[in-house]
Amino acid sequence: MxxxxxxxxxxxxxPEHEVSVLTAMQVIASLKETNYNIIPLYISKSGRWLTGxxxxxxxNYQDLDELKEEATHCTxxxxxxxxxxxxxxxxxxxxxxxxxxxxxxxxxxxxGSEGENGAFQGTCEMYNIPYAGxxxxxxxxxxxxxxxxxxxRAHDLxxxxxxDFYESEWVKDQQSIxxxxxxxxxxxxxxxxxLGSSIGVSRAEHKDELIEAIETAFRYDENLMVERAISxxxxxxxxxLGTAHDLQTSVCERPLGxxxxxxxxxxxxxxxxxxxxxxxxxxxxxxxxxxxxxxxxQSLSEKIxxxxxASGIARLDFLVNADTEELYFNEINTIPGSFSFYLWEESGMxxxxxxxxxIDIATEQHKxxxxxxxxxxxxxxxxxxxxxxxxLKGTQQQGASDK
Length: 403
Known about the structure:
alpha+beta, Rossmann fold, D-amino Acid Aminotransferase, Chain A, domain 1, Dna Ligase, domain 1, 6-stranded mixed β-barrel, 5-stranded antiparallel β-sheet, globular
């Protein structure tokens, strides 16, 4: 087996936990015949870090409580040479001993919350681990729909008119928030600011529906947004692969659902409970739209990808008025469901090739980072500096006694 250990990290404390597991299983299945030794890093719903071969098989996730008991606790660490490792923190079996795996690269396959918002990416940065996908900045901006749209607005990119508010503001002054919604004009779309997979998203035709939707959505996020509904609506998505300096766009897709606004069920349960994640959703690929609109969406996708300093793979989602072809940026997904491999198949790239490309981008980006000077060759803790600090403390004490 190759010594190149590839960690696939997934799960997490997120309403999108199960979706993340589905995506990770697709990644693992696609890479089983490569020369990588795949090491799973599963974060449970309670935040426990687990590893072990049983985490590589989908059928073992039917009982998550049992899985937590049988899997092995783990953490990040460094070996004697300072290389990042995934370290088992307990023994399984009388004659076994904890193992450590030097990490060649890591693929985050999280969706939502701590895994996709830059927090886990920051942990990888702290341990100097090469990881696929966007960095801390792009990940955090992509997760926050309001900040993402603020940036687009500042660069004169088209977004839908709307506003956001926090639960504390709703408690204090519901009427002002409802008045803002009324000024937009019903119907409106309500969304949690920091979630994906259409969880908590509702279309409200009038005030009572909006109130009910708000109360439900606050179960998932303290920050909500209300936007004017686009109708008749086409949702068009496009994926971007690469870095801000070297990228390519996929074909466009049109997701299909029972209503204009796609639900969680439309995205993940449209194939009779299929375990294919986003790949099971009904969609039109390539989207049946004009060449002019396709090129406009692809161009805008490139521009936003660069603007956010994204990396690896992302999916850009747009809203289109079907009558006028007016186009609006909706959101950027820095870890899209199923890594949007189905869009790249249309360009002649299967999922295995896509994952290998992501790993290559991750390791190349990491080489560039560690090739820079990362410390300054001086010692502020030498004897002279320490004396200066002691003197400063004496001055402070003298100043205190003078008062």
